[in-house]
Amino acid sequence: QVQLVESGGGLVQTGDSLRLSCAASGSTFSSNAMAWFRQAPGKEREFVAGINWIGTFTSYTNSVKGRFTISRVNAKNTVYLQMNSLRPEETAVYYCAADRIAYSSTASRTEGAYDYWGQGTQVTVSS
User: Fold this and answer.
1) How far apart are CA 56 and CA 67, in angstroms?
2) Rounded to 5 degrees, what are φ and ψ at 105?
3) What is the distance between the alpha carbons of residues 55 and 14, in angstroms, rounded to a whole number?
4) What average pLDDT does this structure show over 69-97?
5) How far, in Å, CA of 29 to CA of 39, rounded?
6) pLDDT (0 to 100) of residue 26
7) Closest residue by Cα to residue 48 from 20, 78, 76
8) From CA 77, how far away is CA 112, in angstroms rounded?
9) Which residues contact 19 (CB under 8 A, 6 or more apart)?
10) Predicted pLDDT of residue 57
11) Which of 37, 21, 14, 35 is nearest to 84 (CA)?
């Protein structure tokens, strides 16, 4: 069982940066791929970034490539999402998720691949 708690959200202006953190509890964190998803008001939840269990593979949705960076520190049971040059359309609740499959060499972009979810943290980007 993995429990996830996100933090680091807030209200920022266009072009600002934020770093989200996801703290995990549970013995399987270090063997699971992790991902960040987001859900804007009135829209479906979408994949943002993913990282494999050891950090050698990362994947991003096209709109955030070059601006967002996902990383993890297994010794701290934490995964991060560094977000730079934020845009108003990126206002959303950001969720951390953990894959149920251990030691995967990649990270899925599919919501259904993730069994464990945090409660989310609100990111609001003002124009």
Assistant:
1) 19
2) -80, -10
3) 29
4) 97
5) 24
6) 75
7) 20
8) 22
9) 8, 80, 81, 82, 83
10) 98
11) 14
- The predicted structure's pLDDT at residue 29: 78
| Residue type present at position 21 | S
Pairing of strands 92-102, 121-126: antiparallel
Under the banding of pLDDT at 50, 70 and 90, the label for residue 73 is very high
CB neighbourhood size of 105 (10 A): 10
Residue the block writes with tokens 């003002």: 126
pLDDT of residue 19: 98
pLDDT over 70 percentage in the chain:
98
Q: Which residues make beta-bridge pairs with 12?
A: 125
Quote the distance between the C-alpha of residue 49 and its chain's center: 6
The total of other beta-carbon atoms located within 10 Å of residue 77's CB is 17
| SS3 track for 72-109 | EEHHHCEEEEEECCCCHHHCEEEEEEEEEEECCCCCCC
User: Which amino acid is it at 18?
Assistant: L
**SS3 state of residue 111:** helix
User: pLDDT by residue (tens digit) across 22-50?
Assistant: 999 876 678 899 999 999 999 999 999 99
